[in-house]
Amino acid sequence: MLVMAVLTIAVCISAPALSHFFRGRSLDSQARMLVALTRHGQSRAVSEGLPIEMWMDPQKSQIGMEAEPSYDQTDSKAMDFTLEGNVRIEVMNVAAKTSSALGLSTTPGTAQTPKVTSRHAGLPRIRFLPDGSLDENSPMLLRLTSNEGDSIWIAQSRSRLNYEIRTAN
User: Fold this and answer.
1) In the prediction, which pLDDT does 97 show?
2) Domains and CATH numbers, the chain
3) DSSP string covering 86-107, please?
4) Average pLDDT of 23-36?
């Protein structure tokens, strides 16, 4: 009985810490899935030689990827994902001052960029070009937040060729 009492006390003490650990792992796995999805989109754009867009719907916590409709009217390889129920996504285009603090490089915008058709007009999207680069209008920063308030940032790398997980510091 003494052993059972000690085990009960140990479980009661460690349960809150373990629950926080598993919630953090959920947010971390969603961030890793999102980064892997960006790498898949970039690889697909290069291998198929056409622009691929990854759209995000923050209201519904959905993410999808498909070929740009101006090149391929129906995309048999299109994918849709819904983030776990406790994770929300926020898309940000940060200003030069904030991006410098986070270690991001900013590129001055061009005079006029061509209009691109999309099946998901009005939603933020990352556009992967056939040469493997990111469209200059792709978001620089994504924020995944759990219901508990924990956040993970996904930002364009310093080379602006892909995305990576960043910490706040």
Assistant:
1) 39
2) 24-108+123-166 (3.55.40.10)
3) TEEEEEE---HHHHHHTT----
4) 82
